[in-house]
Amino acid sequence: MIRFTHIVLTNRFFLIYAGVVLLMFMAYLYPVLESLSWIAGLCVIILTIVDLFILFADKNVLAFSRSFAKRMDLGDPNTVQLFLRNTSSTSWSFVLVEAHPDQMQERSAKYKGRIAPNECFETNYTFRPLTRGKHSFGHPLVLLHSLLGLAERKMEFITADVCDVHPSVMQMRKHELMVFQQQKLSSGLKRIRMLGNTNEFEQIKNYVQGDDIKRINWKATSRRNELMTNQYQEEKAQQIYCVIDKGRSMQNAFDGMNYLDYAINSTLVLSNIALRKGDRAGLVTFSDKMGVVLPAEKKENQLRRISSELYDQHTHFLEPDFERLYLNLKQAIRTRSLLILFTHFETETAMRRHLPMLRKLNQKHLLVVVFFENTEVKDQSLRKAVTSDELYLQVISERMATIQHRIALELKRNGIQTVLTPPDQLSVNTINKYMELKAKGRI
Q1: N or C terminus: which one in the chain shows less Cβ crowding within 10 Å?
Q2: Which among 67, 66, 126, 135 is positioned nearest to 101, based on CA atoms?
Q3: Over the range 241-263, which residues count as b (16 or more CB within 10 Å of their CB) and which as e?
Q4: How far apart are the C-alpha atoms of 206 and 230, rounded to whole Å?
């Protein structure tokens, strides 16, 4: 059954019909054209009816399908493939209008082509999800037209395609390769030499240039008549907790993703590195009230548990309660641990308000405060000002950028390890800090 909602008249139809109307208008001046104008109008109508008959002769002429990973990675490009198969015995020209997920805010992308009988048209596009959760694809439309091109048949394909966006496993694997397959220098990860003597003794080996001379084993040197040094391995089974602030300030965004989602991806990355290093990884989330408190373990399914808990974390509109965090961690974590706190301080006043609780946490544990550098403000402060408005923005930006560095300096003065980082370098800088502390035997 043909419905009027399925019929679309093309620009070609209106152009030809406009020519017919012009011909009829000319017939008032030149009566000899009257018969010709009516014949032309009748031909347009007949050809349009024939075109509609061709278009709607078969009920099902195309089959549509969409292929994508049901589990997508947050913040990473994910490929979506589209397939359009011609199941009829006629060649068609078409325009495919994909119903992208709402988050893409894409409404103008169209895919045009011509498809022969029993042929399959394939194309793809990239979807970069910026929030966790389920994202639904809509119902795509296809505008089908024949060689006459006077009318189009509108076809809507009802689909129920849904993808589930989780913390990025792709980034986790990438950083794992960087750390464990000697790709550190090219990736931004630092190659840190082991320091201190609190690590577990492993073996005695020949001295090589760059080894710490304090580790020379003089007894072994005298026996072998060559320099020998003690080699230590990293202490394992240390407790590493990623503590995520879900307060109002973590709603700030960079490149489409908020700070909380950057922290979530980095938590999964760091937890994987810690587990691979033999340490125990745990998770704590909080805002104005406590969220998840997942004890640090090194079980086989620990990373899966952490990923599952991270999936459903969201920011709140209230200020974080650091006093509540301190009291809960005092009860939940009895032994000294490394706490990596992902948070964001917008002003010095906000930092000083929470500083007493941060100092208490640092007394009981080794605390690393990781907060975000506003790169847009930094870039604005470096731009050359031409107008008075631009000069005003530059001065304000410089003051805001200075505030962040003063916050970091004040935390360091209070003995608190600090990482001030751009959001896109969060994982690399956090891993570097973890590796540095581990190399120095601080954990």
Answers
A1: N
A2: 135
A3: bbbbbbbbbbeeebeebbbbbbb
A4: 9
CA atoms within 13 A on the CB side of 74: 28
Which structural domain, as residue segments, surrounds residue 33? 4-56
d(CA 268, CA 359): 26
Residue 298 pLDDT > 50: yes
Residues 287 and 380 reside in one and the same domain? yes
My answer on whether 50 and 76 are in the same domain is no
Same domain? 15 vs 66: no
What is the DSSP code (8-state) at residue 191? -
Q: Do 85 and 63 contact (CB within 8 A), yes or no? A: yes
Q: For residue 204, report the phi and psi dihedrals to the nearest 5 degrees.
A: -105, 135
Residue 195 lies inside a defined structural domain of this protein:
no
CB crowding 94-107: b at 16 or more within 10 Å, else e: bbbbbbbbeebeee
- Residue 315 and residue 226 share a domain: no
Contacts of 17 (CB under 8 A, 6+ apart): 41, 44
pLDDT per residue as tens digits for the range 310-366: 999 999 888 999 999 999 999 999 899 999 999 999 888 989 999 999 999 999 999
Residue whose entry in the numeric block shows the structure tokens 């119903």: 99
Residue type, 214: K
Number of Cβ within a 10 Å radius of residue 23: 18
- Partner residues linked to 201 by β-bridges: 232
d(CA 113, CA 91): 11
Q: How confident is the model at residue 386 (pLDDT cuts 50, 70, 90)?
A: low
Instruction: Quote the CA–CA distance of 342 and 397 in Å, as a whole number.
Output: 23
Q: What mean pLDDT is predicted for residues 196-205? A: 58
Flag whether pLDDT at 184 surpasses 70: no
- Among 12-16, 85-89, 181-185, whose mean pLDDT is lowest? 181-185
On whether both 143 and 276 belong to a single domain, the answer is no
